[in-house]
Amino acid sequence: MAKSLDLSLILFVLCISTAAIAMARNLEEESSGDTEFIKASCLTTTYPDQCFQSLSSYASEIKKRPRQLAETALAVSMARAKSAKTYVSEMSDYKGITKRQHEAVLDCEEEMGDTVDRLRNSLKELKRLEEGESGQDFWVCLSNVRTWTSAALTDETTCLEGFGGKAMDGELKSLIRTHIVRVAQDTSNALALLNIFAAKH
Q: Which CATH superfamily is domain 2-199 in?
């Protein structure tokens, strides 16, 4: 009787272990598929490596959903824009800053503030759309999202243009440019992923 119970227990444990292994494999395959979806989608963007690097860690949330991918890309871009705005703001006290540089920094800070607002509006509007939704309201919402995202990209470009000319060359310009270019690349990628989402409707 005891041997029979021992055998039953062993078989039960083996069944549980086999089920756990199978579940783990399924999750791993699913996760791999989600990651591949992001990688394939990012290939359509202007900066595919950066796109994949910034979004791959969200694969389990994104799954294989184009809207969720675009939404996450916008959220990442907005977070980076907030960080860049703070960084630019701190540069107004940069050692040896000239009057012209100071004005460019203040203008850039304002542009980045506009970028954050526009990306926030885009994200809010995109969240109103349900997966699989279509129709006139869908295209109006999507048009708003694209317009705000494009405007955010213009703000980022305007910030960089404020540091144009040889007189503005130097470490300050280089430091700010590094942060703003990264935001602009993320925003450009988000816009491309929005277009993928739109193409599926």
A: Invertase/pectin methylesterase inhibitor family protein (1.20.140.40)
